Amino acid sequence: MTSENFDGEWVAQLMSRFGYYAARGSTSRGGSRALAQLRREMAEGHPTAFTVDGPRGPARVAQPGAVWLASVTGNPIVPFHIEANRHWTVNSWDRTLVPKPFATVGIVIDQPIYVPPDADEGLLESFRQQLDGRLHALEARVAALMTRS
Fold it and tell me: If pLDDT is split at 50, 70 and 90, which confidence band does 27 have?
């Protein structure tokens, strides 16, 4: 999933070069349509991935879309974080990092999170908080790995 703005178009074109499809939307515009597209993609057996902090932020705070999608599809959320030891920082609301050539890239992956299909709003929020906590822990873990390299 990527936003419908200029940055999202750049990301979508990059994704297509690697053979991936981009569902276009965000929490502020077209999000329900994009989540419906991701739901169809998952029903057809295609993997999906997206950043979970939304276009309005706050940065690095998980929004509820991934948790809702996991609940309605029965597919787990697999939290992960990727970071490079040498990077450029984009002057954007979320301070996106772009790896520099020959950088060392660290990837950490956590255990899947299974969200029950009958989850009400309160339970979805609980899982959203769990996802948010795990993502922060992964960010700290990969940062520690990168300082050792």
Answer: low
